[in-house]
Amino acid sequence: MASKPLQWLQQLQDSFVDSTPRPGLHPIPNSTPLTFTAALLPPLTYYLALLLLAPPPPLVIDTPPVKVLRNLLAVIAGILFFRLPLVYHVPQSIGLTYQLGLIGLYGGCRVLDAFFISPYLFRHVPRRVTYHHTLRTESPEPVARAKAKEWTNGGVPDPFHHAGNRQEGNKRMDTGDGGRFRGRAASVSSSYGTAMSALRKSISGPDPVPVLETAVTESGWPMTLLDRAAWALELELSMRGVGFTWTTADVRHTRKTWLPTVQNRIHSILVHALPVLLVSWAIIRFIYACYILPVQDSSWEAYSAYDLFDRRLPLDLQLLLTAALGAFLMAAFSFGHSLFAIMLSPLAPSPLAFFPPLYTTRPWEITTVRKFWSFGWHRLFARLFLVYGIWPGEWVERKLLGKRPEQPADVGKVIGAFLSSAFVHSFAVRGVLAGNWRMATGEAKFFALNGLAVVLEGAIIRAVKKSRARRGHPIHMWYDTVVGRTWWVTVLLWTGRNFARGWIKSGLVREMAFL
Known about the structure:
Shape: globular
Oligomer: single chain
Strand content: under 5%
Radius of gyration: 26 Å
Mean pLDDT: 84
Strand order of the largest sheet: 3-4-5
């Protein structure tokens, strides 16, 4: 019996040193297995450059020789990041090879942003922000304030709002048969209300801590070498800019907020993320095993992505698999987010322990494609899409239409954001599709079509509102939410088939199904 665990450990060790690509992995031709040194050098060089990026003291930081050294380190770090997915692959995993593409592209773009775009184009070096939380007593917000906040929460109730049971005073009951009947009905209604409240409580979990939050930009910091080392580490690890003036819009919504506790995180994993992961994984595995497995070991050229997805799966299973893949990814991000929040919670009040909600609106409250991508999905790449997609898209629209800087350029903003996302994801999946750009266009189509859907729905919503106002009808009708929910789900599932098609061809679905 003892030999079996030892054999398993030996097989695991051998898999880490085996350079043979796992079945189903088709890396970029002539790429080599990732080495420890190749994986370590890009973030390490980036960190050394960040040590010299923080503002003075000491004053030597602002001298030309140090700036030249800093920029040289940044250029090397950027090249190493961009080179990572082009030269290397992870032979043990299709998913890790895919992630290598995201890491390389994200890291290289982040370096360019931090050391060249922000400092030289916008004269901005990220400053550290400290968050101060004071306990508050929950109270209903004024209607005007709630309406003013709609852009921050998707126009829906706060996902962390927990309403307690209402305790009503005893009321005098009528006498007679009618009174007794109403008394029994009230008793049943009260029991039902109590049961539903308990059910909602078990699903929502422990109450987060209601706080008032104040964010203060630190000046004159970092002071010591240790402070500078902490500044560099925190900025390097903060994808959403938490703890810095780079904070993305989804993180800072209002001073009135809630701090999830460790108990909230555990509850989220056990009650929300884990069940969704298991159910969606079971669906993915079942569909793959029944329909794709028989041809998974055929030659690479034998079946195209359309052969594997469109011709082997009926339409209903295509949509089901697409939904399962989306749910799996959403739950996996939530699981990882909560897990890291639990592990790093002892570091509080350091920004490394601050994990604002990853999703700010629940899926069933979403009514447009725009709200899904703004509030229902994570925004870990928000800064990248802002710098390389939104800002250029707005600039192009203003140039083409002659708009002034203060005028909105929403179409350029949306198209720029989705096109940058399309390129990032296509670049990553190309690394597991033998470097073939044509086969990697599935994810590009998915994001490009969603961008067009956002522009289209915005135009339709504006036209409908104007028409209703002109006719004297209410701006919002009772069926708007039904139409909206049907619309965004249909768009995500139908266009998501492009995403799923590429993931099946690349072998990512096979690895997710453990087959």
